[in-house]
């Protein structure tokens, strides 16, 4: 019988890409064609309701039932005109993926049937949601959760071969009002940011009434042939390889990075990009990444809530479209040991309704003081809440990257680049003259900030949080993550910091300081206080880990402990004060994240046991038997001891590795049994991490040794060289 691996290899070698037809050579002709955007709203709504809806989108004003009915009818008419038959509330539960429950527009009526979509169905739905993670919230109170329309993210049509569905972005909340998803807290954090940032803007420019956060998400991923993927139970079940000897050629030649994109991959990229563009996702770049078969795509930045919806949607699309091309897309942070993993850089800045980027140095000194205020407050916020930011990017899969000498370390630090680092240094040591007569008198004392900061920053890829000219880039986010988690935290901590800033500045003004003196005095104080978080050197080095320790920065390497920051007193105060999470919501979230952590390790441990016992060891033993036959045969022929030494030696080596693998698999099983009896989620997660996961490396090491010895034709799992070098 042919092995699955042999069949898969043959299939993979004979792939023909499906033909990809772009709707038009001009992207502008089909961009957003599946989105109920402002232009379509205008076409399908009365002028009055259109204006009300725009004000809801921009200012968050409420919509009444009657208007909701008109909007629902407009959406339905548009969607049905494009061939949609169903609608769904689309939301982002804490499972990490997106969820939908489809309902038909179709409704039987007295004399036949009609297509209907009422305002009430647009505004609110009750999905049967008892099986989404809720960390105990729904169990103790009310069994139901509901989804509520988020008008700030436009409805869109999801196309699939079998039909089209109108999707309405929603938040997902429990009956008692607690958030059960990623979006609800994000929207609250953005509201807090808007308020706090506008208040600070008022010192500089009275015409600013709204500040939105912007986000550009770079998405890294691996591609693997579908047949080969299916022949690897570890990839199928856990998203990463639990075994596999690194191929002779890895990424050491770095010939993949910015190399030409393989034809088959190119067809796939164009295909999913077209789908994304129709959904209004402004994809702009595509390229190879450092590791073989690793790629990246990035859209142009958008308002944060939309950018995250788009990233979630994009990940769905990438997976869907991959099927058409017989690919599997691996979004896991570390699909292959020994080569780079994948991240999701989050480029973040703040933009006013007057079109000003608050993190871009301005032309005039006044603008520079404004820039400095936002810049330094961001640094201060990250310094104050580094542990919380660390918690927001932690996960079982991201643990493989952080601190593993490839992605930014688990130590949170900020890279500013030489110019800005020196400017902060200068301000810190400057003397602020209080004798100025009017605000402008101070300007001579402020160091000049060049308007264009040389982007020498991208070369320091070792920093988890880097300033890149006109935005900060949070690089520690994992490729599978929903960016809402870190973005909720980042916006919450900066909003809170800006609020404190205003209090501090107002105090000085009250005492008689000129406004600019007060601003600069507080900025200077913050620069000093947050100095420890700034680091310009190599974040991967041991020296940095040592220095960070002396600076008092934490270096929390694993998820169960990193998550503590979510429920610390400091975080609880921050979140309750800003109305983003109640204490109960925080504890529920903490619980969900811990559970997800140990469940994933539990699955990995099981798969490791299954594959070893049922595939690896049988293959190794079968090969060993052949060698035994061989040795016996040689002996029967009357050959000397030396002549049979080679098969004997291989038999012995095989025995050694087989023995170690088996012993460790059994010991790991025992540990799992013990760990499974632990009640407390945190203790259980730690035990999985420290007592179960520790076996993974040993088992893998010896399995990988076996892989190098056992006859290639009987080895059951596709090897790294087969998975990684796509043709
Ligand atoms: P790279 O980081 O590879 O040098 P860019 O800096 O041009 O590339 O862009 C990376 C991402 O950052 C893109 O998604 C881009 O749209 C986004 N970006 C650029 N400016 C901003 C900004 N002001 N706010 C948020 N994201 C931004
Ligand atoms: Mg970048």
Describe the secondary structure blueprint for this structure:
Elements: H1 4-13, H2 38-44, H3 47-59, H4 65-81, E1 84-91, E2 99-104, E3 106-109, E4 112-115, H5 119-123, E5 124-125, H6 137-140, E6 145-149, E7 156-160, E8 163-174, H7 183-201, E9 211-217, E10 219-225, H8 226-230, H9 233-238, H10 263-278, E11 283-288, E12 294-299, E13 302-303, H11 304-324, E14 327-330, E15 346-352, H12 365-384, H13 386-392, E16 414-415, H14 418-429, E17 465-467, E18 472-474, H15 484-510, H16 515-529, H17 542-551, H18 559-562, H19 569-577, H20 583-636, H21 645-676, H22 681-692, H23 694-709, H24 720-724
Parallel strand pairs: 1-8, 16-17
Antiparallel strand pairs: 1-2, 3-4, 5-6, 6-8, 7-8, 9-13, 9-15, 10-12, 10-14, 11-12, 15-18, 17-18
Helix pairs in contact: 7-15, 10-11, 12-15, 12-16, 13-15, 14-16, 15-16, 20-21, 20-22, 20-23, 21-22, 21-23
The structure holds adenosine-5'-diphosphate and magnesium ion.
Which keywords apply here?
single chain, 727 residues, alpha+beta, Creatine Kinase, Chain A, domain 2, Ubiquitin-like (UB roll), 6-stranded mixed β-sheet, 24 helices, 13% strand
């Amino acid at each position: 019988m042919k092995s699955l691996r042999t069949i898969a290899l043959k299939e993979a070698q004979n792939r023909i890409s499906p033909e990809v037809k772009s709707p038009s050579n001009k992207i502008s002709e089909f961009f957003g064609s599946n989105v109920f955007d402002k232009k379509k709203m205008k076409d399908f709504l009365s002028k009055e309701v259109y204006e009300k809806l725009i004000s809801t989108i921009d200012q968050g004003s409420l919509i009444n039932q009657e208007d909701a009915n008109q909007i629902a009818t407009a959406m339905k008419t548009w969607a049905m005109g494009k061939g949609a038959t169903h609608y769904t509330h689309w939301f982002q539960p804490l499972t990490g993926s997106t969820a939908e429950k489809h309902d038909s527009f179709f409704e039987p009526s007295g004399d036949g049937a009609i297509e209907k979509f009422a305002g009430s169905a647009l505004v609110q739905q009750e999905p049967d949601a008892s099986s989404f993670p809720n960390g105990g919230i729904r169990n103790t109170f009310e069994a139901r959760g509901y989804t509520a329309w988020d008008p700030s993210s436009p409805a869109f049509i999801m196309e699939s071969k079998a039909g089209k569905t109108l999707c309405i972005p929603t938040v997902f909340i429990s009956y008692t009002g607690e958030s059960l998803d990623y979006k609800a807290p994000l929207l609250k954090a953005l509201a807090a940011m808007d308020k706090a940032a506008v208040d600070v803007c008022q010192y500089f420019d009275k015409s600013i009434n709204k500040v939105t956060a912007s986000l550009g998400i770079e998405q890294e991923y691996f591609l693997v042939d579908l047949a080969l993927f299916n022949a690897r139970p570890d990839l199928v079940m856990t998203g990463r390889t639990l075994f596999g000897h690194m191929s002779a050629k890895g990424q050491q030649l770095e010939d993949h990075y910015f190399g030409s994109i393989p034809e088959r991959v190119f067809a796939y990229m164009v295909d999913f990009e077209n789908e994304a563009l129709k959904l209004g996702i402004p994809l702009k770049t595509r390229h190879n990444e450092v590791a073989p078969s690793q790629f990246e795509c990035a859209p142009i930045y958008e308002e944060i809530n939309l950018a995250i919806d788009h990233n979630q949607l994009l990940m769905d699309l990438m997976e869907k479209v991959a099927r058409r091309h017989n690919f599997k897309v691996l979004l896991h942070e570390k699909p292959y040991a020994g080569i780079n993993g994948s991240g999701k850089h989050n480029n973040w800045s703040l933009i006013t309704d007057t079109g000003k980027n608050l993190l871009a140095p301005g032309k005039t000194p006044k603008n520079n003081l404004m820039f400095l205020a936002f810049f330094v407050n961001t640094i201060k916020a990250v310094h104050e809440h580094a542990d919380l930011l660390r918690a927001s990017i932690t996960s079982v899969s991201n643990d493989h990257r952080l601190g593993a000498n490839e992605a930014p370390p688990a130590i949170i630090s900020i890279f500013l680049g030489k110019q800005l680092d020196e400017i902060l240094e200068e301000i810190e040591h400057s003397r602020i003259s209080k004798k100025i007569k009017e605000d402008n008198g101070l300007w001579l004392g402020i160091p000049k900030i060049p308007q264009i900061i040389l982007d020498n920053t991208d070369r320091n890829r070792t920093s988890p949080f880097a300033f890149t000219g006109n935005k900060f880039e949070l690089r520690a986010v994992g490729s599978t993550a929903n960016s809402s988690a870190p973005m909720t935290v980042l916006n919450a901590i900066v909003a809170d910091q800006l609020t404190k800033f205003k209090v501090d500045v107002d105090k000085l003004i009250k005492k008689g300081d000129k406004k600019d003196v007060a601003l600069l005095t507080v900025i200077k104080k913050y620069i000093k206080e947050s100095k420890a978080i700034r680091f310009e050197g190599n974040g991967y080095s041991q020296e940095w880990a040592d220095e960070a320790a002396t600076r008092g920065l934490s270096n929390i390497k694993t998820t169960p402990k990193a998550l503590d920051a979510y429920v610390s007193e400091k975080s609880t105060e921050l979140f309750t004060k800003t109305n983003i999470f109640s204490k109960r919501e925080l504890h529920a979230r903490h619980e969900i994240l811990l559970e997800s952590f140990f469940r994933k390790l539990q699955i990995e441990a099981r798969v490791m046991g299954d594959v070893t016992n049922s595939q690896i060891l049988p293959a190794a033993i079968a090969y060993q038997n052949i060698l035994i036959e061989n040795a016996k045969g040689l002996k029967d022929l009357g050959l000397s001891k030396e002549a049979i030494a080679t098969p004997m030696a291989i038999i012995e080596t095989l025995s050694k590795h087989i023995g170690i693998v088996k012993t460790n698999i059994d010991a790991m099983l025992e540990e799992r049994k013990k760990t499974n009896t632990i009640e407390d989620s945190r203790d259980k997660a730690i035990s999985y991490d420290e007592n179960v996961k520790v076996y993974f490396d040993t088992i893998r090491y010896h399995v990988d040794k076996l892989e190098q010895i056992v006859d290639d034709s009987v080895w059951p799992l596709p090897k790294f060289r087969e998975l990684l070098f796509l043709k």
